[in-house]
Write a structure and sequence with these properties.
Largest sheet of chain B: 6 strands, mixed
Largest sheet of chain A: 7 strands, mixed
Shape of chain B: globular
Order of helices and strands of chain A: EEEEEEEEEEE
Helix content of chain A: under 10%
Oligomer: heterodimer
Structural class of chain A: mainly beta
Strand content of chain A: over 45%
Number of helices of chain A: 0
Radius of gyration of chain A: 13 Å
Distance between the termini of chain B: 41 Å
Order of helices and strands of chain B: EEEEEEEEEEE
Distance between the termini of chain A: 37 Å
Largest interface: A-B, 29 and 23 residues
Number of strands of chain A: 11
Chain lengths: ~120, ~110
């Protein structure tokens, strides 16, 4: 079966533009995560959904970042008025169950590389 | 605050040599710890987790709560082990997994 997919794979935006990044999790996966990975760093947690509920958005760096998962499957991460410091790879991951227990293995997508000029 | 430290950005060993990738963490509770691996041009994937106490591709990792470490070890490295390795911590009852900065392992022939 297909794994987690993300689109677009690459995005170049001019400073100040709004961008939308899409994540298609593995079918039936309850949990969905977004991470931001800056060059030379590990992924940093942004937000977590359980089905359509956004249970944790503690990692979103500013109110310019917004994520949604309205029907509990596809998720979109939106960044408004992009800044150069938003340049990073944005990773999406999904897991079958909640965040604890045996079914919490997170499966990652290929990422979207965002470059803000 | 929870933190994961991987002190080596780069690690190079010869094929057949033992390898140890270091991971130290700071967390006052009982975390879940993981090793993720990213091979060239592939996506990040789980290698192993401490609760499973398993060996994957010859790698093992033991949680040492006294030293707050979760080092990844393999007795005989193979060229196909060359990859980026990330140690990660999931605080108990939380959703925000914390990753280290990663160690790039190169296994030379």
């Amino acid at each position: 079966g297909a794994g987690v997919s993300q689109s677009p794979r690459y995005k170049v935006a001019k400073r100040g533009q709004d961008v939308a990044l899409r994540c298609d999790p593995i079918s039936g996966h309850v949990s969905l995560f977004w991470y931001q990975q800056a060059l030379g760093q590990g992924p940093e947690f942004l937000t977590y959904f359980q089905n359509e509920a956004q249970l944790d958005k503690s990692g979103l760096p500013s109110d310019r970042f917004f994520a949604e998962r309205p029907e509990g499957s596809v998720s979109t991460l939106k960044i408004q008025r992009t800044q150069q410091e938003d340049s990073a790879v944005y990773l999406c991951a999904s897991s079958l169950g909640g965040t604890s227990g045996f079914y919490n293995e997170q499966f990652f997508g290929p990422g979207t590389r965002l470059t803000v000029l | 605050a929870q933190r994961v430290t991987q002190p080596e950005k780069l690690l190079s060993v010869f094929k057949g040599a033992p390898v140890e990738l270091k991971c130290n963490y700071s967390y006052s509770g009982s975390p879940e710890l993981f090793w993720y691996v990213q091979y060239s041009r592939q996506r990040l994937q789980l290698l192993l987790r401490h609760i499973s106490r398993e060996s994957i591709k010859g790698f093992t990792a033991d949680l040492n709560k006294g030293e707050t470490s979760f080092h990844l070890k393999k007795p005989f490295a193979q060229e196909e082990d060359s990859a980026m390795y990330y140690c990660a911590l999931l605080p108990s009852g939380h959703n925000d997994m914390r990753f280290g900065a990663g160690t790039r392992l190169t296994v030379k022939p």
